[in-house]
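User: Can you help me understand a structure? I only have the sequence.
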Amino acid sequence: MFQNVLGKLVTETVRVHRCVNYAPLTQRVTAASGSVRSFTAVKDEVQPPFDAALLQFLVCPLSKKPLRYEAETNELINDDLGIAYPIIDGIPNMIPQEARLLNKDTDTPTTPTQG
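Assistant: Let's start by predicting it. Here is the structure, written out as tokens:
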């Protein structure tokens, strides 16, 4: 019984070793990395357009009020709180900690508070 198991183990191991390519690892890695495009070399000058139809669904996460799209700065603006949410690669970043405060003439808090 053990001879059958040992014989199959040796036979299967020999078959596997015949199929394995023993090229050095560095050659395989350099060949694969040569075809990979470098993300730092790619410069996207044009931002993807923001779909203005999303404005009917998107609200400020702090005040739950509607937002206004500012095309010049590519941001969603909450006029009540004076907060601008950036749009990165066509996707609104609605994280309050990453929002930019707008300069307002009225006396308002300088940091957004979560309600």
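Now, to help you interpret it: The CA atoms of residues 49 and 90 lie 6 Å apart. DSSP finds two helices and five strands in the chain. Let me know which part you'd like to focus on.
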